[in-house]
Design brief:
Elements (H helix, E strand, L loop, with lengths): L17 H12 L30 H6 L4 H4 L56 E10 L5 E2 L4 E5 L21 E5 L5 E7 L10 E7 L2 H4 L5 E8 L2 H8 L8 H5 L21 E5 L3 E9 L1
Parallel strand pairs: 1-9
Antiparallel strand pairs: 1-2, 1-5, 3-4, 3-6, 6-7, 8-9
């Protein structure tokens, strides 16, 4: 995708609000009692982008940094105590959880920490700056105690703003999607790449929290659906690699965290990750949430 291309038209179900998303989710999960302690839960909104060439190989910049990022990907979470429950967000058209089209959660291989490559019939690796995500889940009803043994389903766009399983050119891929159980500290860790910024949205990563991996892989009840926001300075540093992130700099220049249609209501304060590292060595993003 280049700066001169125009985005595809927005999915007809994009940003239709909580009521629409709950109705869609109920069709899939009515038998599981959606009206649990977490209340009505929704999926996270997205927009679509222009397709471009397949990402079967990384740019020279990315390839050169893979080895140096190895230490980064093993970094531990820097957990903090949340001050409030993380906001629920609407879903959008690309969850890949069966609530809107394809479902990867019941596929063998979805429980994995490294989500950079597709699994199953394809082994395509997504190009991009290495990123480790440590998402720590706590129970707001129990004084934000760590939730050990919960499960996090995490997914996001690739460097060109495309979502696997949905976007043109990557419909047969399932990279940048995976499920991990939380450890004794409540942390689920994913090795991935830094997502691109597509037109109209602040750079972000989606997640769903389940009570267990068994629930996550069997259409069980979702405890929380929300998303993680990425800091502006880090985004600017990553997107300087225009060969890998061709339109992200220009797209980022047209949005703001406080003006984003998802993060704008609360400024993204409860969803803004703390990120360390560098574009040459890779990054680590830490976020602790209450559910």
């Amino acid at each position: 995708m280049t700066d001169t291309h125009q985005p595809e038209s927005v999915h007809p179900d994009h940003d239709r609000g909580l009521e629409f998303d709950v109705q869609t989710l109920l069709a899939r999960r009515a038998a599981f009692g959606l009206f649990g302690g977490a209340g009505l839960l929704a999926l996270v909104g997205c927009a679509t982008t222009t397709p471009s060439a397949a990402t079967t190989s990384a740019s020279p910049t990315t390839a050169a940094t893979t080895a140096s990022a190895t230490a980064t990907t093993t970094a531990t979470a820097a957990a903090t105590t949340p001050t409030a429950e993380v906001p629920d967000e609407t879903a959008g058209p690309y969850p890949g959880d069966g609530s809107n089209g394809p479902n990867t959660l019941d596929d063998s291989g979805i429980i994995r920490s490294d989500i950079t490559s597709s699994f199953g019939t394809s082994t395509t690796k997504a190009a991009g700056t290495p990123l480790t995500v440590n998402l720590t889940v706590t129970d707001a009803a129990k004084g934000y105690a760590a939730m050990s043994g919960a499960a996090v389903y995490l997914w996001h766009a690739d460097a060109q703003g495309r979502y696997s399983m949905y976007s043109s050119g990557v419909e047969n891929e399932n990279y940048l999607r995976g499920v991990q159980a939380t450890n004794s500290a409540g942390t689920a860790t994913f090795k991935t790449i830094f997502p691109g910024c597509y037109d109209g949205r602040w750079p972000h990563i989606h997640f769903e929290v389940y009570a267990s991996t068994a629930d996550a892989t069997s259409s069980g009840q979702i405890v929380k659906t929300s998303q993680l926001a990425l800091p502006q300075a880090t985004c600017e540093a990553v997107y300087a690699d225009s060969a890998t992130y061709p339109s992200s700099t220009s797209n980022l220049g047209r949005v703001s965290l406080t003006g984003d249609n998802v993060f704008g209501e609360d400024g993204g304060i409860l969803q803004l990750a703390t990120v360390t590292g560098s574009a040459s060595a890779g990054y680590v993003a830490n976020l602790t949430i209450g559910v």
